[in-house]
Specification:
Blueprint lengths: L6 H5 L4 H28 L18 E7 L13 H5 L44 E4 L4 E4 L3 H5 L4 E8 L7 H7 L11 H8 L10 E4 L20 E3 L18 H21 L4 H23 L7 H6 L8 H15 L4 E6 L13 H25 L6 E7 L2 E2 L11 E2 L3 E6 L7 E3 L1 E2 L6 E3 L2 E2 L1 H10 L16 H4 L9
Parallel strand pairs: 1-7, 1-8, 4-12, 4-15, 5-6, 5-7
Antiparallel strand pairs: 2-3, 4-11, 8-11, 9-10, 13-14
Length: 487
Amino acid sequence: MPHFCSDEHVRGHLPRRTFLADMGMGFTGMALGAMLNREALANNAAWSPPNGLPHFAPKAKSVIWLFMNGGVSHMESFDPKPMITKFGGKSIKETPYADVQNPDKLAKERAPVPDANGNQRNVLFPLQVGYKKHGQSGIEVSDWFPHTARNIDKISIVRSMWTTDSNHGAQTQFHTGRHMLDPASPTLGAWAHYGLGSLNDNLPQFISIGTREYWNKKDGIYLGPAHDAVPLRIDPTNPLDFGTPERPFGKKAQAEGFSLVERLNALSGIEYPNDPATAARIASYELAFRMQQSVPNVIDFSQESEETKNLYGLNLPHCKEFGQQLLAARRFVERGVRFIQIQHGGGGAGAWDAHSGLKPNHTKLALAVDQPIGALLEDLDRRGLLDETIVIFATEFGRTPGSQGSDGRDHHPFAFSVWMAGGGIKGGYVHGATDELGFHAVENRHYVTDIHATILKQLGLDSRQLEIPGRKRLAIDHGTPIDDIIA
């Protein structure tokens, strides 16, 4: 951020305004401030904030984080389980897999929570859609995701995820690694933003698109508000909310106004030193000024061919909104944005929360997201961007093999699937496994922060080197990279 410097600053003298502000504290306050500053420096002599450079050679520059709110059924997406159809209508206890609910028969590490809010969903609910093998890898994918399946040889599926929140606080848990009732922790996007420098100062480096619930709206937490995501609504007819002046201003007038605001902001910085909220607000206003020029250009889809727009489904009402968001994501990473998180189905518990009517629910929602996702993978690939861009498809938890009511599935934190592509991730690969009913992750089990650790590794970051003094994180908060899916 540019700083307003007086001649007194240049000569090394104390500026008059700073002197008067310090006098307001009193001489005792001045002395105490100096002592505390020296103590802080002494205590943290071995620590310095990130310099914007990766800790080691990165394989990826950007991340597009696709998050399905509500809980996608892993069995009817990327981990088909024919046994629940074979034994449909029967209790789990009537199948050869009766021990799946017996912790003594499972791996030692196990999600330490009751099944689906304490409710047992024991009567198996048959698969509500078919599935096929796809690509040279022959990976099985639900028929609800044909466009994603067409790109399966670009994708690594992790079928052995687990979490500890059996309710929708799991949204926060997937983004931060912490249960929502634990002390708040930064999201993965905030850590990436904190650790890496900007690739384009005219655009935000961390963008959030789509609806986020109240329990999942903060990113920076103790890293500071400067590392919160910038929320954007993708609408080509209104490319930047509140970004147009109420009356026309010429470029010269805008520049003069901005210069005056810079000077006033610098004076505020003197009166309120070391206030991260003030600094973040100033930086956000400066970025907003630059975004007035840059964001409308990104959201101008008239620059794209009709073939590309149709590829994303912009010509189809059922997937136009999500298609526009993913096309914008590609255009943002093309221009150097680091981290873009796109929430699908936000609002309340989340649109994918199919406690009843799973078949119509997932049919409709998969139709809305599948074509744009397939288009994103293909478009990034043909433009040479997939090699440096990680695309992740994630959700908060899976859904029960047993039925809830007559035609739904309950929350299921014991097992679910996530997939990743690009940025040095293997293609056409499956890692981990669930039991025959999809009840538990039983092979190569991964808590959600293992996904975080994998992405940070590909970005060239070591989360332990990002730790802030006094903010010690548990080992599980850091996670462990899933090296098996890294090319």
